[in-house]
Design goal:
It is built from 6 helices and 8 strands; from the N terminus they run αααβββαββββαβα. The protein is α+β, with helices and mostly antiparallel strands. Among the domains are: about 60 residues, Double Stranded RNA Binding Domain (2-Layer Sandwich); about 70 residues, Ribosomal Protein S5, domain 2. It is elongated.
Length: about 220
Amino acid sequence: MNKPTEEKQEAQQENITSQTPESTPPVSKAEGPEEKAEETKPSVSNASRSGDSLRRGKRKPGGEKKSEDKEASEFVEQVIAINRVTKVTKGGKKLSFSALVVVGDTKGRVGYSLSKASEVAMAIRKAMGVAKRNMINVSLKGTTIPHEIIGECSGARVLLKPASEGTGVIASGPVRAVCDGAGIHNILTKCHRSNNPINVVKATIDGLSRLKKITP
């Protein structure tokens, strides 16, 4: 009676061992996510490259700003006089500032402007913008003017006389600013009758605008 029970127990053990998988790799389940992670790495690098390209693209406007700054630096801007102006009204006095500015490119173009604003910085900025829009062409002969001329404005008269190389700019403050802006390096000048800077600048511009070109 004991033999059949022993045979049944052996048969049950054999069935249990046959059901357990002997060659199932336990690591196969863990390998799947790692492979997927490795496959997703190139996409992340591509995204980072695209982000770099976008950042590089955003830097282009900065180069345009630098070019604009270079163009603005080519002009010679000089503030000659700043005055406080009052306007009397029924409500009282209104204070403002006027700025006289000369702008030139040192290549034969020069302009001036007298502008007013409530603040000094705003008046200077406004005058520079108007002066750049109203520039005149000056005929030059090397580093000096081609001939002698007298400019007039109101009660001011300015004598402009050509000079030889190495003489320099012999002039007062307002006339010197106009000559430097126009690119004149050798000239003799003399102010008559009035020393008002506004009238002196206007007289100098009047004389330079009436210069004639002398063909060699």
